[in-house]
Amino acid sequence: MAGELSGILEHVDRIAELDLDEVPPTSHVVELENALRPDVPHESLDRDVALRQAPDPANGAFRAPSPQAEE
Amino acid sequence: MAELVALTVAAAAARIEAGEISRAEYAEAWHEAAGADALNAYLWRPDSPPDGIPVAVKDIFCVEGVPTTAGSRILEGYEPPYTATAVRKLAEAGFDNLGKTNMDEFAMGSSNENSAYGPALNPWDRSRVPGGSSGGSAAVVAGGLAPCAIGTDTGGSIRQPASLCGIVGLKPTYGAISRYGMIAFASSLDQCGPLTRDVTDAALLLGALQGRDPCDSTSIGLPEAPRPPEREDLGGLRFAVPAELSRDAIEPGVREVFEATLARIEELGGELAEAPLPHAEHGISAYYVIAPAEASSNLARYDGVRYGMRAESSGDVIEMYERTRAEGFGPEVKRRIMLGTYALSSGYYEAYYGQAQKVRTKIAGDFAAAFAEFDFVVTPTSPSVAFGLGEKTADPLAMYLNDFFTVPMSLAGIPAISIPAGLAEPPGGGPRLPVGFQIAAPAFGEQKLLDAAYALEQAIAFDAKPSGAPYARMDGTKRTGTGGQGDG
After folding, report:
1. Taking Cα atoms as reference points, which of A14, A32, A5 lies closest to residue B356?
2. B131: phi > 0 → left, psi -120 to 50 → alpha, else beta; which?
3. Domain span at residue B311?
4. Which among B282, B364, B411 has the least Cβ separation from residue A14?
5. What Å distances lie between residue B200 and B162, B227, B234, CA to CA?
6. Average pLDDT, integer, range B171-183
């Protein structure tokens, strides 16, 4: 995979040669103003429903291995 | 049944409305047709016929209680607790899910070969790819396994498979359709759109799908609901052909169909001229920085904790994350995550991500300049006809270059449509395969785009279809072309 990634980066490097110092970056193409929705409380996902897809639910929560492995 | 599945969606809807055919019989006919999938195009189908006009849904759209994998092992068995707005809006317009279609994993690919569930096959030639990433959606429509479908397009993932399968594919303006419930790949580029047999059906689906959604703050909707397209000529319209369009990179057969279509535009009264799009050639480079960067962030959520698969592991949480992601993601997804995190890393950010965002500004500027003088920009949709399975899998860059003509529009956020324009012999010979023609318009110019595409569609009168597909290509009455380009 290292060779593939190098090949791709080599192609991508072509844009490094362009002189774009004065050009502003674009992160979003369509102008949006005040796109927030009204802050109205609404029902959220039921806890049981939210947990139904979890690989290892426990005590009404998502269970994951400890951040520190047992010795 | 054969008569029912021969109808376009618009024709069927009109006849259902008039009481000439029953909606249930129509849905049953399609349920049966979809059951004969020999293309690996469906990843899931319901047990009973749809309760409405059938529509095939790319497996990237969450549907409550329906398995949704995005073509990935990491989501195998996942049943979302909610439904994507696009699917909900289709239901409100009288459509129902005919099945979930195959796709490249997380929509990363141009051939469907990156699906964890094996590639969908091209109905024109099962030894060839249907394109991607919405390959399953294109294959079911072209192969007569669905009357219409929805897909997503990030860098060409609706238009390119539509081109390779000989159908219509529309990528609307960014923001026209809500992305809520659509599994995220590159959020500033992803856009839902229809794959259909003809332009009229594309307009029909777009009308059902578009609109602002409070659940997606980047959704805007269209300024007005799309009307059925009806234009019959192209008089007074100006079409730009990119001056930098490197004709060498295009297969001879594709070039021939492209040139013939340009001539057709002139016959219809359209004006053609070359226009500079000097930065479009850097589209692929910018895209393959921006899309992986966004993907590397979006895919961080697959951690084996809240949903999806978790790999067996006896170690700590970090080991569990690593094993889950190592086992759950395919090679292309890993490649993109690595590219993306590299491009965003300290010390490389400005050179890659920052520079790519500036190229994006320049590409959008090129289009803005072109649209000051022209109504549309036209290109071939893909430089090639459908290629063979396995032909490009060893070389990711060659695969990426498939998106050469579709990526610039994605970066600029503008709408673009691919319509079938004719057939061409693949390099190395063999039965002729479909060639798509791409038309791009200014942001929110969907109605003008659909009208022009419709006029051109009528004149081209593409009447070829994969052998065995149970529909007649032309059931309109206004088709005037000779149909000489197809024999399929």
Report:
1. A14
2. left
3. 289-351
4. B282
5. 15, 9, 17
6. 98
**Interchain proximity B81–A11, CB inside 8 Å:** no
B316/A67 CB distance under 8 A = yes
Task: Based on the fold, state whether residues B183 and B45 are members of the same structural domain.
Answer: yes
pLDDT tens profile B352-411 = 999 999 999 999 999 999 999 999 999 999 999 999 999 999 888 888 888 999 999 999
How many CA atoms lie within 13 Å of B22's alpha carbon, on the beta-carbon side?
6
Q: Same domain, yes or no, for B56 and B14? A: yes
Dihedral-angle region of residue B175 (phi above 0 means left; psi in -120 to 50 means alpha; beta otherwise): left
pLDDT at B278 over 60: yes
Residue B157 designated active-site: yes
Residue B476 lies in a domain: no
Respond yes or no on whether the N-terminal peptide bond of residue B133 is cis (omega within 30° of 0). yes
Distance from CA of B313 to the nearest CA of A (A): 9
- Beta-ladder partners of B275: B242
The residue assigned the tokens 């979003």 is A28
**List of chain B residues whose C-beta atoms are within 8 Å of the C-beta of residue A55:** 304-305, 307-310
Domain boundary among B303, B331, B351: B351
Q: Examine the residue annotation and report whether B410 is marked as an active-site residue of this protein.
A: no
pLDDT-derived band of residue B473, with 50, 70 and 90 as boundaries? low
* B241 and B125 together in one domain: yes
Task: Please tell me whether residues B293 and B375 are part of one structural domain.
Answer: no
CA distances, B105 to each of B135, B408, B442 (Å): 11, 22, 30
Residues B57 and B178 placed together within one structural domain of the fold: yes
B486 lies in some domain: no
The total of structural domains in chain B comes to 2
Q: How far apart are CA B467 and CA B125, in angstroms?
A: 9
Tell me, yes or no, whether B124 and B248 share the same domain: yes
